[in-house]
Amino acid sequence: MKIWKHTRRDAAMLALSLAQTATTFALAATWDGASWPWRLGGACLLVLMMTYNIIVISHLFTHVPWFESRRLNGLASMLNSLNIGQSVQRYQLFHVRNHHRYNNDRKGPDGKTKDLTSTFLDGEGGEHDGLFHYAFVGAVSTLGTTARALLSATRLWRVGEHEQELIDLAAKDPARREQELHQVRMDRLAHFVGVCIFLALSWRWTLFCYLPAFYLALALVNVQNYFEHFGAAPESRYTDSVSYYGRLYNLLAFNDGYHQEHHLRPQTHWSRMPEVRREHAARLEGAERIISPVPALLGFLHRDRPLLHRRPVVTAPAEEPSDTFSATG
C-alpha cells in the first residue's frame, strides 16, 4: 500500500511536526521548576518552532498533502493545528483559494483588495501597508480569530454561520464542502484539547510563555509574507512575488525561498521548485522582478530593494493558468 502521495522525503516534515509537539509539551511540563535562562531559551525555541511550522511545514502541506490517505492527511492537519495554534484546513482555504487566486492584488475601484492578506489592503495611495501595522496589528486580528475558534465549544467547534468568508471559500461540491468544514472542526478540537493539556501542565507557562510566543510567531509570519511581496508588481504572474535562492536556507526550509516559482505553480511539490525556475527561465529572466539577497523574514535588510509597484502599470500579456486549487473541485 502506498503511503506517501509524492515522496518519502515528506517524512522529514512529519518528523519535525512530531518533534515540535513533544518539545512543546516538555516545555510546558518543566516550566514551573525551570530557571529563568531556561525559560527564556524555551520561549525563543517555541517562537522559532511555531514560525517555522507556519511558514514551511503547514504551508507546504496546505498545497501538497503528504499522504495518499485522506484520513492520514486529516490527522496530520490536526497535529499541526495544535502546533501552529490554528486550523490547518482553514489556513488552506484562505491561503490556497484566496491568496493564490488573487496574488497580493492592489485595491480595486471599490477600495478593497480581493486577496484578504494583500499587503496593499490597508495601504494608502497605491502603497503597501506599513510593516508594523501589517505584521503586529495583523497578528492581533489573527489572535482574536483563534480565540473565538477555541471558545466555539458551545457549538462543538463547528464553523459558525457568521464565518462567511470561510464558508465562501469552501468547495461548492456538497460532499467535499462537508469534508473541509468537518476538518476545520476537528482541527479546532485538536487545538482546544492541546490548550487544555497545556493549562493542566502549567497555567503559568500557557499565559506567560505560550500566548506571547504564539503572538510573536504570528507577527513573524506576517513579516515573512510582507517581504515575499513588498515592492513586487502584482500585474504579472512573473513579477508578483520575491524569491531568494540561498542554498542553505532552501535546504533547511524545503525550497521556501522559491516564492515567485511557488506562485507560478502553487500545487507543485516543494522538491521541484528548481525545475519550475528552469521551466520558466526565459520569462523570469526577461521580467523586471525582485530577487532578494536575504530570506523574506530578513527582508528589512534588503535596503536597496527596487519598488516595482510604483512604476507605471503595463497591461501584461496573456499568461499560463496556474495549478491553484479550485473551490469547485
TrEMBL record:
- Tell me the GO molecular function terms: sphingolipid delta-4 desaturase activity
What stretches pass through the bilayer? 38-61, 189-218
Q: Name one GO biological process term.
A: ceramide biosynthetic process
Question: Which UniProt keyword terms apply here?
Answer: Membrane, Signal, Transmembrane, Transmembrane helix
So which domain of life are we looking at?
Answer: Bacteria
| Domain Fatty acid desaturase span(s) in chain numbering | 38-285
Which N-terminal residues, if any, form the signal peptide?
1-28
Q: Does the record's keyword annotation contain Iron-sulfur?
A: no
> GO terms for CC?
membrane
Protein name (database record) = Fatty acid desaturase
In which organism is this protein found?
Cystobacter ferrugineus
- Lineage of this protein's species? Bacteria, Pseudomonadati, Myxococcota, Myxococcia, Myxococcales
